[in-house]
């Protein structure tokens, strides 16, 4: 649930910076890209926290979420952590934002089976009760929507640089 709070707070902070004149955050989708990047940095860090650490989610918690059909669950947790970090980096770079947003949306779809399995199998997370499926599914849908929205900001920037308006007509 913690990541679900990071995105709106990050979005608000980045939009306020945009309103204050920071051009990087001049649009809602660009601000969403940066908010998603912060969320991904936080969630990715849990992939590398040793299993013995109980102060936060850790590698062992994520391995336990892996459905039985996933080969090499520990390696998959490390790999998904790296992918989250790369996705975060891609979102903050305007030139790779579109590709990163689309790739992250696909990534969130691909990790959905682990979230479903964890909810249905009642796998505890970070020493707490399992997150119910009715909460996990909308959460994943929000992540997918924000990733695609962030990808859209790259199109807006490209239009601005080419001198086109939102409808594709030249600016006058």
TrEMBL record:
Keywords: Membrane, Transmembrane, Transmembrane helix. The chain crosses the membrane at residues 6-23, 35-55, 75-94, 101-121. It comes from the Bacteria. This is DoxX family membrane protein. It comes from Nonomuraea helvata. The lineage of its organism: Bacteria, Bacillati, Actinomycetota, Actinomycetes, Streptosporangiales.
